[in-house]
Fold:
Amino acid sequence: MFEKILIATRGEIALRIHRACREMGIKTVAVHSTADANAMHVRMADETVCIGPAAAKDSYLNKAAIISAALITGADAIHPGYGFLSENADFAEMVKDHGLTFIGPTPELIRIMGDKVAAKKAASEAGIPVVPGSDGGVETEEEALEIAEEIGYPVIIKASAGGGGKGMKAAFSREELVEAFLVAKREAKAAFGDGTVYIEKYLQNPRHIEFQILADEHGNVVHLGDRDCSLQRNHQKVLEETPSPVITDKQRDEMGSILCKAMQKLGYTNAGTIEFLYEDGKFYFIEMNTRLQVEHPITEMITGIDIVRAQIFIASGAPLSFKQEDIIFRGHAAECRINAEDPKTFIPSPGKIGLWHSPGGLWVRVDSGMYSGYAIPPNYDSMIAKLIVFGSSRRSCLMRMRRALEEFVIEGVKTTIPLHEKIINNPDFIEGKYNIHWLEKFINSQH
Structure:
């Protein structure tokens, strides 16, 4: 087992990884930018190293600085958390080349899954259902029109190297496709330095369903069920729940089994999440995240499995300590992502926190690095907390979330707590009647 792990990220996830390490008797090294000198994970870690100025490109994305920090402090392994370098195959390779362990999958699999076209091909070959569309990148307008005719309108054009909605355009006719194709290529080139795009059938009212898997280096793979992440704004998840209100136990078991076999075939190791669009009873693969997800705590709540702890054990070469039949899904869990943003305009609201009071009580968990008096820097993502609750049923879970949101007090900055309160009290949401477009329509209806 590792003696010391360097945590190559910031915010609540850095603190989450630190806690798992402490419970395992492993020492931690926190790296931080100058803007994060007073961050909670920095205050809690055994050792700290400042790796650069506030800008992420000069600190949290500085591969050489992070590896130097690991070597100087004598760390055995690096946990990248999520964001920043967590899905950077070159970084994972560098970590390995310097005799350190990267807590995640192999650089080869990160590389395959980081390219949307290659990922779709690998998924299809491994037996995972995919969205009908092009076999690879589409070069010309003529080729795009041909594929669209074959799969039928509407279609969606996506950047092969990207995510977060950049380089993504829908087209409902031939005329729209020509324009959308050129715009998507241009956006993809500007955002990711790679103008490659591909085309898929555009599902009009799908849910966003994902499956969590864990795989060790000995060929053992298990799935930890599904998560419904359909509540999104600008392609960013806002609230997640598990299990999905629309998936049956039979569907969950069947898809889980397909994914475990596929991951064995691919030789995947560590934690991973396979994301799908789900419509009319069918799953369509969209991408795989080769890292820990923001929403992993809800899965921990219903399975009782510490996913970060499992990641560390797997990276150390240990086999999984449980089999699929040992995993029991109990109750229901939900997570609200609390951002320091105006709840109406979504303009970021960095600044100094006045009073900070976290909700408590049975089955309520708050993952956050915030505290009273902390100054939220303007340089990074605006998420400042995750409120996670569990209930024996979906109804009891939502009642507990409602109560916990009422208790949550954050003064000094604006937050999205009021938006979450509106969602939790909405009849459509209470009945589980929502898809990936529902939240944006709901937000627009409020203005």
Summary: The chain has three domains: 4-103, 132-201, 207-445.
